[in-house]
Amino acid sequence: MQVEFWYEFASTYSYPAAMRVEAAAKEAGVTLCWRPFLLAPIFGAQGWNDSPFNIYPAKGKYMWRDMARICEAAGLQLKEPVRFPQNGLKAARLALLGQDEDWGAAFTRRVYLANFAEQKDISDEAVLADILGSLGLDAQALLARSGEQANKDRLRAQTEEAIARGVFGAPSFLVGDELFWGNDRLEAALEWARR
Amino acid sequence: MQVEFWYEFASTYSYPAAMRVEAAAKEAGVTLCWRPFLLAPIFGAQGWNDSPFNIYPAKGKYMWRDMARICEAAGLQLKEPVRFPQNGLKAARLALLGQDEDWGAAFTRRVYLANFAEQKDISDEAVLADILGSLGLDAQALLARSGEQANKDRLRAQTEEAIARGVFGAPSFLVGDELFWGNDRLEAALEWARR
Question: Which of A9, A97, A140, B45 lies 20 to 30 Å from B51, alpha-carbon distance?
């Protein structure tokens, strides 16, 4: 079976997950689908207009320390983002296009690095254009396509699908109806997919 | 270094943690301290008057499924509790006495089994007395001592200590100032303690 990796660019724990999910799935012999979505509508429905890591300071303080340990163990850079959470809407619309065109994985990893390792503003179209260009892609054409109504609607529908399938946070992994939440559940999701 | 295991009897993920923490610490050669505390004052300060797993239904649904997978993998029974969350106040006051008297670990495990495997009401003094009796202890004397003002105050102080040291959920592990949250962080906490 395949595993679906559901991620949001503002999500801290999605960063180490995004950096290792492809290699881990390959090693497990499991097909991987990249599924960008938005957390804001999900959090908004719970009455949160900010990250729960900002709303609940003790949880937020712990998360940054936990992320530092995880990134250090994984050999990943971690620097305080230019703001938290960042607005990942435009990046998610681009990743949605890339999902069908085989550059989505590489684009996704570069956006996470820009957010959590390079202190770049990932809501800035110039930053996203640089990333697309570095992958040998036509940045302006992709930015234009990503902003078309059909693509906006598709990202909205993908987020609705996430909610309908029980997703409430990121990263999440789905193996059919079986939901796994959190970077630390990747191995369990892959094991489930191999059954 | 030692690892402190901070737990609340109403907490679902504290159940598998409580059942495995002693053996895991022993294998790692790390001294273990049992630290019962109460989540209600912590949740109350965040504006929650119920478990977040009840307040946020998608998260609650996932948690029960995740617990079922974890307990199955660990060979632990899991049955829907008589209510969720249960009131673990009296059990925590007893566990606090046991923490000094070497029956705390066994008592703690039996209370978790009563809550999550045996569908018993752990706020019922008769249930707690049965558990104490099964450990060869003088149940009535311990119940009386556990309800004395000094012991009530001590549990309150222990909860205040948890908050002061950054604890916001259960189970939590502390190695000095280093905080680890969740059953799935036990191994990381033990590794930290061995450094």
Answer: A9
